[in-house]
Amino acid sequence: REHSEIGCSPKSRWESKSFVPRLPDTKEELDILLLTVTRPRKVHRDGIRFQGFRYFDISLSGYIGEEVTIRFDPRDLAEILVYADNALVCRAVCFELSDKRTSLKEVIRARSAKRREVRESLTDLLQIADKYVPREKPSLSVVPIVAAPEVEYPKFKIKRFACDE
């Protein structure tokens, strides 16, 4: 359909070669446009902690204790982009994930599976324990509270000296 502002269809305008799209000036600006997932994080001495992993770059040493914004690709958590005041500081790398490509969904899925496995093993252990040593429910018997006897402490007089006024 014809567009009201340009007077022709967007497809014909694109194909006419008179239209030049605005491209970002630098690769960092392109990263900002493409990586829309952002999170605020605090920089620690050992780097930035995110999703249970530690990301580090030598450039982060000047930002220890400060809040920064990280941008990341949810399909690849091996590297995050660190921004301070909307300026790129560095590309921090997780050494645990640097040799393989791991997505956020895979990390969440693996954690859920591990949590489920631990929960199942705990319920199995509790069933075995109940089989051999049944749990006794504590009785709610009322225990009378005995008041502590009052203790009288000796009264001391404050001694005043001649130099005291």
Question: TL;DR?
Answer:
It contains 3 helices and 6 strands, in the order H-H-E-E-E-E-E-E-H.
Helix content: 25-40%
Kindly, what is the distance between the CA atoms of the first and last residues, rounded to a whole number of angstroms?
101 Å
Strand content: 15-25%
Shape: elongated
**Spatial strand arrangement across the major sheet:** 1-4-5-6-3-2
Gyration radius, in Å: 33 Å
Kindly report the CATH topology of the domain at 24-101. Answer: OB fold (Dihydrolipoamide Acetyltransferase, E2P)
Low-confidence stretches: none
Provide the CATH top-level class of the domain at 24-101: Mainly Beta
**Series of secondary-structure elements, N-terminal to C-terminal:** HHEEEEEEH
Separate helix tally: 3
Secondary-structure arrangement, i.e. CATH architecture of the domain at 24-101: Beta Barrel
Q: Class by helix and strand content?
A: alpha+beta
Mean pLDDT across all amino acids:
80
Q: How many β-strand stretches?
A: 6
| Sheet with most strands | 6 strands, antiparallel
Task: Give the topology.
Elements: H1 10-15, H2 27-34, E1 38-42, E2 48-50, E3 53-56, E4 67-73, E5 76-84, E6 87-94, H3 104-132
Antiparallel strand pairs: 1-4, 2-3, 3-6, 4-5, 5-6
